[in-house]
Amino acid sequence: MTLTKTTTLGIALAVITGALWGLVFLAPALASAFPPSILVAGRYIAYGLLAAPLLLFRFKNILPHLTLRNLAIAFGLSIAGNTLYFLLLANAILMAGVPLSTLIIGFIPVTVALVGSFREGAVSLRQLWPALALGCVAIACITIDALLKGETAVAYAPVTGLILAIAALISWTIFAVGNSFYLNSRTDMSAQDWNLILGVVTGVQGLMILPFALHAGVLPSEAEVWINLLLVCAALALFASLIANALWNHVTRLLPLTLIGPMVLFETLFALLYGFLWEQRFPNTLEMAAIILMLISVALSVLAHRPGKAHA
Q: What pTM was computed for the model?
């Protein structure tokens, strides 16, 4: 299989990004004493605090890009891909449970690739459907496994949870597509500078969420628990937001949308692997099937984008 250097680099960065994003799925277990909204607010406030000094360091380069239009776009994309998405997903899990939420969110590679297929010169859905279908089957395996284990919601409201999960799916699809279009239209701005702008804007949104999050439920009083929360939020902000989002911006510029979608499966794959390490066990039959299907799905997606093949 022959790939261009650009595609190879994009895939490599997507794997690293998925490995970092996968850490997010461990966060609720590490900060289980707090409601999800506190974790969301803390993570993104920390993201903003990390991004702000870096933005100031590059302020001369970034200043020309701090127009009202760019800030409005950054604010909207940050809502779609960060704060709103995770709030919708967290509440969907609470209301409808992990299986249903995972199944719906698992369609992100499909929705992103579907939108990308309408671009001029893009790989057609006829070439992509085997890969996308296998990815959906992999997510279904995870869902079935969770159902067999009896994983349920905290507050069972399946219809409301389903609506929130679908809204989260639409929200992140809007972010992925919008971010791709914007970055590819702004070749004068580096992917890292755009990440810093998004980071500061997202930090402001985290501050806006915080007052509501503090009243979302009964909070613990132990200092050790709060210190643990701060460490978790700082780790997520550094690895899953600042670094991972910067890498994803590079992926967005290196790969077409039809390939960017399937790359999201790496987040699910690494989330599974981290879960096995956390629980100190090997995957069962359904989980192993899901992992294998995900890998095959990504491989088929890559094959469909080989030079001379993509526009066949």
A: 0.86
